[in-house]
Write a structure and sequence with these properties.
The chain has 13 helices and nine strands. It has about 475 residues and is α/β, with parallel strands linked by helices. The longest helix has 29 residues.
Length: about 475
Amino acid sequence: MDILKQFLGRLHPLLVHLPIGFIILGLLLQLYDRRKHSYNKVVAFVFLWAGIVSIFTCVSGYLQYLGEGYSFDTVKWHLWLGIATTIFCFLMYSRISGKPFLAFLKRFPIVLSSTLLFVLISFTGHLGGDITHGKGYLLEPFPNSVKSFFGYETFEEKTIALTEENWETSLFYEDVIQPLINNKCVSCHNPKKAKGELMLHSLEEMLKGGESGEVIVKNKPEESPLYSRLILPKDDEDHMPPQEKTQLTKDEITLIKTWISYGNPFNETIGELALNKELFLSFFPQKENNIYPDTIVVTAPTDSITLIKKFGIHVQQISNASNFLSVSCINKPSFGDNDFEMLSPIKEQIVVLDLGGTQITDAIFEKLTSLPHLTILRLDNTTLSGNGIAFLAQLKHLKSINLTHTNFESSFISPLGKFKTLQKVYLHNTEASKNEEQRLNGKQTILDYGNYELPKIAADSIIY
């Protein structure tokens, strides 16, 4: 008998959509036929069946409440409003069919009845969603100020405030793990709402576990539900947080694993645990990526820019707050060495220049020295060999050169060691050899040959 009760109760999520469909259909037909009332028999039939299936839905919902361990306080308003909706469907049937069994129904405006039924089904459905997905699930994407306005309890997000100066002296649990769990888990696991009887608002409660037992097995993250459920596929019903909630990032999951692996320490600092700094870099304040020269230049002549654009060269400001320009010949593959002179009127403003895929030769290197603020240079997919690249050492702001898919030769690697500001040279698919790197005087890291291999971390097994 218990098995049958549980089975019928679990039909509730299926049955619950039937009355909703009937009611919406009936209201739409009523709206469409509001003047002629020629569809009254059809509309009445729809509301009759809406009432009938609502009875089965209420019964299955009640059985689910009995069999799934919900408290009555959790389901009571959803239950009462479901019963009210059922009764109202039969009242609508009685009113529209012209056979009201209550006299006052004749005097009750049909528009008001329809509005009340729509409000009833909306609130009933919303409360059902709260039971299934957690209270406030509808407002989950919104900031706390919006949630508070609608009367939902919020948990203030805590910032993981790590810097170059304090990361080693910060407490691993209090300054990193606790804010992380508070931001992603506590909304469903707190004293007022403890899903699975699990509370995560404090370490003491976390160590107690929930109805399924402990969530932390010391030094064994793979056996700890607090970690193991995080790396399940998102469509797995045991995956945490639930699919509709904000998910933890790969870096955050790795930190949870590390904390459990180290025996879930409470009072130790990151430095005392000798943890790798790489684990925390994503939580450091992001430095402003101001790679361009810290200087002010006048606005480039508008007529010169217009003329250059007519030639097929793309010119645009790097930002509204700067007069520096980005110039690209992506739509001008015939651009050659002799065409470079047309850029002279805007040479002071150019910081990004893309000559990739054009007809330039090694003679271009000397010409490029006329661009005093050049920072990013793209020369990929050309026939350049690198002869003359030493000229570019004169450019005081040059940080990046892209030479991929060129004929760049190993013998021209050594001049790159004399570039004072150069940070990266891309040499994928070139003739350049790593054997020449020793000539760079310790600047080997500026060379990038591609073919990256990233180390695998535990969170890579998550299916998003």
